[in-house]
């Protein structure tokens, strides 16, 4: 066994059973030194030294002690963070990937070079045992693939982890009366405008929060969604009824850059603030159905489908790259299901 722990800010202590072979190994690490007062070997506290140590003692299990693992993981996370930024991943994806990778590395509690495919599979099985959703497990796999394939490019590591089959869950949808009741429960003009906008245009909450005044096309009755999911721009509809409310909002609040400013007028409203606005509106409306602000987007798509809008147009308005994502709304449409007669009605 080889025990590694923090010795000082710049050094790591390395403790192992005495043998001439082990002494020869430690001497091959650049910058190593013997500290006579503590009778212990020390190596520089950096990734190169750790990699060298692991390669030399590959037949022994290296144990990291005294919070060293946390520091080691943080140093690896920095490299991942830089690579995510260079590849222009969205802030949400960056945050999710970093969290998944950090949890995995702390779970393994071993140097990166000693991590094997079995470690990944055990970690994923642990998530399944904890009843994490298939979407969560799938994102974990994507994050770990990024770590092993894109960041550290391990030549001897074949990342061929199978992905879980996703649950076929139907999107929760509000009917038109419920949407009306939610909107009517909001007295604040700014809050009402935000919720009306999200529903009437099928926006993601992040898209609504980051809209600028210049994104509203009053001539063509369109809204320009910039740099949306997948780093793509798109246009969606601008409701004539919303336009009236929007003009009043602009006249009263006079935003300067962001359509919906935060408490600091130089910043846009936060996504969490919008979520709270919706939660309070649902509670006030008396609707018992579980719904989030994203439910408005699902409702927008379903109501368009029920009114006869072609699925291809709905796909464009929502910004779905894959038509299969949009087709889920055919399963929740009341119009499609409601016009099917039960065989019992033919018998009795």
TrEMBL record:
InterPro entries registered for this protein in UniProt: CB, DNA_brk_join_enz, Integrase-like_cat_sf, Integrase_catalytic, Integrase_recombinase_N, Integrase_SAM-like_N, Tyrosine_recombinase_XerCD
Annotated source species: Pseudobacteroides cellulosolvens ATCC 35603 = DSM 2933
PANTHER family (alphabetical): PHAGE INTEGRASE-RELATED, PROPHAGE INTEGRASE INTD-RELATED
Keyword line: DNA integration, DNA recombination, DNA-binding
Pfam families documented for this protein: Phage_int_SAM_4, Phage_integrase
Protein name as catalogued: Integrase family protein
Function: Site-specific tyrosine recombinase, which acts by catalyzing the cutting and rejoining of the recombining DNA molecules.
GO MF annotations, alphabetized: DNA binding
Matches recorded under Gene3D superfamilies: 1.10.150.130, Intergrase catalytic core (1.10.443.10)
Keyword DNA repair: no
UniProt record similarity statement: Belongs to the 'phage' integrase family.
Domain Tyr recombinase positions: 169-342
One GO process term, biological-process aspect: DNA integration
Domain (Core-binding (CB)): residue spans on this chain: 74-152
């Amino acid at each position: 066994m080889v025990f590694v722990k923090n010795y000082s800010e710049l050094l790591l202590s390395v403790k192992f059973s005495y043998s001439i072979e082990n002494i020869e190994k430690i001497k091959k690490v650049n910058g190593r030194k013997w500290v006579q007062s503590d009778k212990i070997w020390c190596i520089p506290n950096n990734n190169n030294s750790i990699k060298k140590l692991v390669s030399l003692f590959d037949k022994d299990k290296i144990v990291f002690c005294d919070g060293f693992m946390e520091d080691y993981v943080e140093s690896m996370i920095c490299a991942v963070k830089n690579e995510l930024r260079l590849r222009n991943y969205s802030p949400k994806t960056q945050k999710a990937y970093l969290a998944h990778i950090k949890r995995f590395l702390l779970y393994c509690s071993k140097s990166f070079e000693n991590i094997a495919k079995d470690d990944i599979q055990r970690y994923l099985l642990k998530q399944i045992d904890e009843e994490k959703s298939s979407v969560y497990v799938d994102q974990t796999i994507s994050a770990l693939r990024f770590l092993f394939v894109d960041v550290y490019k391990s030549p001897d590591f074949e990342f061929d982890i199978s992905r879980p089959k996703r649950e076929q869950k139907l999107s929760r949808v509000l009917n038109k009366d419920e949407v009306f009741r939610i909107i009517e429960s909001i007295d604040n003009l700014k809050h009402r405008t935000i919720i009306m906008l999200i529903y009437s245009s099928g926006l993601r909450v992040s898209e609504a929060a980051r809209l600028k005044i210049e994104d509203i096309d009053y001539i063509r009755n369109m809204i320009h969604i910039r740099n949306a999911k997948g780093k793509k721009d798109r246009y969606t509809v601008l409701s004539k009824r919303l336009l009236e409310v929007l003009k009043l909002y602009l006249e009263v609040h006079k935003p300067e850059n962001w359509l919906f400013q935060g408490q600091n007028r130089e910043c846009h409203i936060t996504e969490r603030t919008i979520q709270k606005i919706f939660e309070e509106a649902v509670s006030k409306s008396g609707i018992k159905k579980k719904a989030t602000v994203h439910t408005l987007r699902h409702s927008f798509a379903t109501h368009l489908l029920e009114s006869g809008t072609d699925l291809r147009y709905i796909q464009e308005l929502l910004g779905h790259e894959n038509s299969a994502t949009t087709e889920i709304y055919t399963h929740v449409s009341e119009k499609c299901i409601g016009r099917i007669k039960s065989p019992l009605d033919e018998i009795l």
